[in-house]
Amino acid sequence: MSPLQIKKGSSKHSAYNLRPTFSDVQETHTLAVLVDNEPGVLARVIGLFSGRGYNIDSLTVAEVDHTGHTSRITIVTTGTPQVIEQIKAQLGRIVPVHKVNDLTVEGLSVERELALLKVEGSGDKRVEALRLADIFRANAVDSTLTSFVFEITGAPEKIDAFAELMRPLGLVEMARTGVAALPRGL
């Protein structure tokens, strides 16, 4: 069928009904970035995000190879699929970046986070806080007559759930490390 034979208003061949290849749905992705361990690298990576208005939900950095002087930056960020692709492409163009892996799309991965939660309370609230800590496998790493500091590790969702249950029991303060993640298998 030639373009002249297409019926008027037909959506099958209309240039006005082209669908974009990316959706507008916000997705959360975990990116693992292997970089040289040298001054200014983290600032350049963070500058990429802040300069373009991208948000970082979680950020962890540590040296992973002392002899090779490389560090691993694990970034959890949210955006449309198009924005995530832009972030990965732009990270890959930074000179000290060796490799960018999107653990969210590359298969199954293991994600863990550490948190410390200070909970004040006495009486029944204190007993309930200890009971919940046991259920969540949180450890009391400090204790006074009026408060506890709990240490908990696990998926970010587990830590969120534990914190929400501790709020009415006297959660005062919380510190989180951010996500550390590795792909499963070889």
Automatic annotation (TrEMBL):
- Which positions fall inside the ACT domain? 30-105
Part of which pathway?
A: Amino-acid biosynthesis; L-valine biosynthesis; L-valine from pyruvate: step 1/4; Amino-acid biosynthesis; L-isoleucine biosynthesis; L-isoleucine from 2-oxobutanoate: step 1/4
Q: Which CDD domains match?
A: ACT_AHAS
Q: Name one GO molecular function term.
A: acetolactate synthase regulator activity
| Xref: InterPro entries | Acetalactate_synth_ssu, Acetolactate_synth/TF_NikR_C, Acetolactate_synth_ssu_C, ACT-like_dom_sf, ACT_dom, AHAS_ACT, AHAS_small-like_ACT
Reaction(s) this enzyme catalyzes, per UniProt: 2 pyruvate + H(+) = (2S)-2-acetolactate + CO2
What are the protein's UniProt keywords?
A: Amino-acid biosynthesis, Branched-chain amino acid biosynthesis, Transferase
SUPFAM superfamilies named in the record: ACT-like
What is its EC class?
A: transferase
- Residue ranges of coiled coil: none
State the EC number(s).
2.2.1.6
A GO cellular component annotated for this chain's UniProt record is:
cytosol
List the GO biological process terms.
isoleucine biosynthetic process; L-valine biosynthetic process
Role of this protein: Catalyzes the conversion of 2 pyruvate molecules into acetolactate in the first common step of the biosynthetic pathway of the branched-amino acids such as leucine, isoleucine, and valine.
Q: What assembly does the database describe for this protein?
A: Dimer of large and small chains.
Q: Which NCBIfam families match?
A: acolac_sm (TIGR00119), PRK11895.1 (NF008864)
Q: Which family does it belong to?
A: Belongs to the acetolactate synthase small subunit family.
Q: What is this protein called?
A: Acetolactate synthase small subunit
Q: Which organism is it from?
A: Roseovarius mucosus
Organism lineage string: Bacteria, Pseudomonadati, Pseudomonadota, Alphaproteobacteria, Rhodobacterales
The gene name on file is ilvH
